[in-house]
Design brief:
two-stranded parallel ribbon, 2 helices, alpha+beta
Length: 76
């Protein structure tokens, strides 16, 4: 209706949990491991897959994101 061709979601590799298998691929098992961060990433991906049936959904799962005030990656 609005001409949107794709929706991009910045998610996280944490959808695989903290104990993911070696060489896990993008369709690998998702594990929330009772962690709210992991679980909300899994749930947001699932919700958008339902909503974005008429447009392309691109999910990016970076391992680390840092910015100017990131303590472990910039300050230390």
């Amino acid at each position: 209706e609005y001409g949107v061709e794709a929706f991009v979601l910045l998610s996280s590799v944490m959808v695989y949990g903290f104990t993911y298998p070696n060489n896990v691929e993008e369709d690998g098992p998702k594990r929330g491991e009772n962690n709210p961060y992991c679980q909300t990433k899994i749930e947001s991906e699932a919700a958008l897959k339902e909503i974005c049936k008429k447009t392309n959904l691109i999910i990016i799962r970076p391992g680390d994101i840092y910015g100017p005030r990131s303590v472990p990656w910039v300050v230390q």
